[in-house]
Amino acid sequence: MPAEWAPQSAVMLTWPHPGTDWADILAEVEPVFLDIARATLRFENVLISCEHVARLQELERDLNDFALRNELPGRVIAVPAPADDTWARDHGPLAVQRDGQLELLDFRFNAWGGKFDWQKDNALNQRIADTGAFGATPLVPVDFVLEGGSIESDGAGTILTTSECLLTPTRNPTLDRTAIENMLRETLGAEQVHWLNHGYLAGDDTDSHIDTLARFCQRDHIAYVRCTNPDDEHYGAFRAMEEELQQFRQADGSPYRLTALPWPDAIHDEEGQRLPATYANFLIINGAVLLPVYDVPQDTEAEQILAGIFPDREIICINCRPLIGQHGSLHCVTMQIPEGVVQP
Fold first, then answer.
1. 8-338 architecture in CATH?
2. How confident is the model at residue 95, as a pLDDT?
3. CB 214 within 8 A of CB 225
């Protein structure tokens, strides 16, 4: 499985519409999706699917006009398709290189163990493939529940994940840890699997997706969230997670370089529930990193740290405060598609 920093042809977005849980705050959340799309078009294509055809046609016209006016390299590929929600990271396809050829794997999606409606999202990749948007790259169905946000790949055979998520019985109830590791070997070419047994995010519906906690930045480098406030509910779990990361070893036996990301001030919804704000939910694209920010003091520090981690990429901050109202963030609503797949 390629690393996220491998060359990309497009970023996939599943657009919010009035039939999703975003209905009451579409006016707030659509600008976030537009910011992500416009930032991405500066570097690569954007593949948008939307259930509402009229809105999709507007997006295709307006965003392509924006790209042409600004002489940007990216273009919008628009696909009409039904969707239950917008979390492309988890229902989108996962790419692998097999015998020198790219494949897009269509794992089963059941909305994080049946928490929400999922049938439309589970069918979405095939609907997109049927339009020809993935070109000649085959879409291969896999009878295994796996979300893109639950795994991190270093591009060289190591997968980083969490036991809380992959071992949840509502996903693959007949499989234990050994069987799941075997499945990751067979499908993603995993030669080594690092399991985090600690770390969680309040307000998160995913059972501790790795992309909210710890991320590969290079093969030897992991960025992770750290909480320094002993009174914060995350403090103990994050300290235990940090100790686990310190014990992990690369394939050659050497430890990883570790960089701590700041922990944002607590953000709550109108009912007092803490929302899952995390700086680990960034997206690496060609030439840039899109960083979610939340209008809190730690935003500036997070930007500075990411700039140090990725000195050759532009850091583009996207205000994702509206996204966390539905318990996800920037990485959660995007899925990168490798170079050579999506052609305008």
1. 5-stranded Propeller (3.75)
2. 98
3. yes
